[in-house]
Amino acid sequence: MASAAFFSTCSSANENYLHLTPTHAYAKGFVNNLRTSNLPSIALRNERFVRLRGFVAMRDEGASKVSDDGPRMKIPHVLTVAGSDSGAGAGIQADLKACAARRVYCSTVITAVTAQNTVGVQGVSNVPEDFVAEQLKSVLSDMEVDVVKTGMLPSMGTIKIICKTLREFPVQALVVDPVMVSTSGDVLAGPSILSTFREVLLPMADIITPNLKEAAALLNGMQLETLDDMHSAARLLHNMGPKNVLVKGGDLPDSSDAVDILYDGLNFYELRSPRIRTRNTHGTGCSLASCIAAELAKGYPVLAAVAKRYVETALDYSKEIGIGNGPQGPFDHLLRLTSHSQDCHRQKPFSPSDLFLYAVTDSRMNKRWGRSIADAVKAAIDGGVTIVQLREKDAETKDFLESAKACLKICRSHGVPLLINDRVDVAIACDADGVHVGQCDMPARVVRTLLGPEKIIGVSCKTPEQAQQAWVDGADYIGCGGVYPTKTKENNTAIGLDGLKTVCVASKLPVVAIGGIGVSNARAVMEIGVPNVEGVAVVSALFR
Ligand SMILES: Cc1ncc(COP(=O)(O)OP(=O)(O)O)c(N)n1
Ligand SMILES: Cc1nc(C(=O)O)sc1CCOP(=O)(O)O
Ligand SMILES: [Mg+2]
Prior knowledge:
It is found in: Plastid, Chloroplast. This is Thiamine biosynthetic bifunctional enzyme TH1. By secondary structure, this protein is an alpha/beta fold. It has helices at residues 4-12, 22-52, 91-101, 129-142, 156-168, 194-201, 212-218, 227-238, 284-298, 302-305, 308-317, 363-369, 373-383, 397-414, 424-430, 444-451, 464-472, 496-506, 519-526, 540-543; strands spanning 64-67, 70-73, 77-85, 105-116, 121-126, 147-150, 173-176, 207-208, 244-248, 257-263, 268-274, 357-360, 387-390, 418-421, 434-437, 456-461, 477-481, 511-514, 533-538. The protein has 2 domains: 4-45 and 350-543, TIM Barrel; 77-210 and 282-298 and 300-322, 3-Layer(aba) Sandwich (UDP-N-acetylmuramoyl-L-alanine:D-glutamate ligase), CATH 3.40.1190.20. The radius of gyration is 24 Å and the shape is elongated.
């Protein structure tokens, strides 16, 4: 039965849950209690970002405004300044789709219009520089842009106008994708702009994202053929002024992996992922840069923002689509173009906001209530949980697999991801959305190899070092706890809110807090003041 304390929480939200099952009602109580605390968390993200970037003043708009017509939530906003691609695989069109996929608003300033398809670029018409300036002013003077991302900049004048306008309307970050040559090999910005690029734009950039050809062009034709060459290029480009350099090694010969090098002036990070063999790679550079801009706009630091996984997933997903007859096709940014009839049976791409209310099942608790795992999961989803993990420590493998399949059906039909605790074999067998592993389970790096780029991987972490390793291993999020003492997991040390904060600050991945969390203390967890706490994971508060 639901407790009196619970109902007092609910009645404060003016809702009557007496007709609901306890799990359903408890989940609703969480959602109501946390929903209001999510707004400050967005505010804190923006505040932290401003601090990270070294700006003295907070933007005075804050996270949410209250006007006569109700509250207005601040939405992360990227402005892309780039060329239009009539084939819509790259340029402005790719940027819009990538930002939409990352759930960020995207406004556009068009610098050139290209007649382009999967064969190549048939024509280019530059937008007059004055009109680029006018578009920039229209957007920046009115809308609260967080991050500007640049793509095709066809003339020195255009580059100078952008830099001048950004000095007048400063934003939190500038992402520069130094587009010079299209994937088809057509020149989009000639050598005449190189010096302006180096001298004016690069010093203002928070991150630049050249591929090997672009890095070579910026470095006067330097040969880039090995990983060592990429390290040297990143260092030399960093000397030109950008705060971070991402040299993309997709074109590196003789490499089975796609390796990018990120250099922040202090450390090199080798970002390695399996090379995805597909013709549909047109627009990957624009999309990755937009994705980075989108994550920066949400408040993530640069290292976490370099979300290669999104582009990998989209490429992997789009291998079979056939658009156009040329050698390089566009990919499916929103993962919506195929499997029309089975939309509800396909996995959605992971979003950190999925972690908001994370239900972890417990076979003993379900048994005590005499209900199946699937019934428990259904009730939790009806109550508003945003992700489910099946943690069935006592179940026989065969029964676990059957339950997992039943739960997956329910979860997919509600758009809620389903993860499996510990058992990678069960996850593969039922095609679950991912796996959650602890420090004594299969290493996340091995799990990633087994599950591929599309699946969600979570790792339990109690220390900053473990959080760093989870990121290196290719996890999507970390579970951090126990925040409070819990009876659900034996011999589990509680790290408290301070311990949680220490791990979150070190983590480049989104975090879900776990351990002893209930309706009464969930808000305190969400409000610890770090931007990457995305939600709370609970067992007994939902299922006991
Ligand atoms: C979201 C989340 N965080 C942490 C854990 C704990 O995982 P682990 O340390 O592997 O312990 P067990 O759950 O396997 O006992 C979790 N399951 N979920
Ligand atoms: C499964 C689990 N992992 C933890 C960790 O600290 O990693 S705490 C925990 C149990 C959480 O259960 P409850 O919500 O009932 O306290
Ligand atoms: Mg485990």
